[in-house]
Amino acid sequence: MHDGPTEAHHARLRHRRRGFFLAIAAVIGLALAWQLTPLRDTLDLNRMVAGLRQLGQQLGPAAAVGSFALACVIAVPLSILMLVCALAFGPTLGIVYGICGASLGAALSFLFGRWLGQEAISRVAGPRVRYISQRLGHRGVLSSIALRLVPVAPFALVNMVAGASTIRLRDFLFGSAIGMLPLVLVSAVFAEQIVNAATRPGWLTLLFVGITLALVVGGSAVLRRWWREAED
């Protein structure tokens, strides 16, 4: 009597698990495509600034925020989006629209990852993966802040993986907003300097690269520590 529903449930979990990994692969592919294929040419800064500004003027702030969120979901680099938002709307509105758009995009990817991956992954994950998931969930806000401060993976990918963990959505969004503040503030205040550093490399370019590398190294050390603790 109960075999049918059980088998159907297991089959559904297998399909969702397969879909989750396919979605992860798609996000990674998109992130690489924005950097390494002709798609990169579509990320023209002047054209993006003009388009976002026009969208906001014609359809209102909600349309600008929505387009920002959609771009986050399809793995357009968050750093570029924040810079475009600051240049299009100025420091104050750029911060507001950037935080709102990134948070909406994060929520969409997070919920998609949760729907596809949380139950399916928890049934097949090893003890170390389950430990890390529980650790992330136990320190939800702090974990989310750390994930945002350390640029170890594309924005959309982090959101989906977080959705498959035990982090609560509200903790994730709150921690993400805090963790994104440095990027948002730097983009808003130093937008023109960043553009100049990208087009005419100099000491400022080296400074940005050094900060990024330091964050990656520090975040990797934390993740390795968690992984070793899971083995004990």
Automatic annotation (TrEMBL):
All residue ranges annotated as the VTT domain in the record: 76-190
The name this protein goes by in its record: TVP38/TMEM64 family membrane protein
Coiled-coil regions, chain positions: none
Keyword Protein transport among UniProt keywords: no
Domain of life: Bacteria
Keyword Transmembrane: yes
Protein family: Belongs to the TVP38/TMEM64 family.
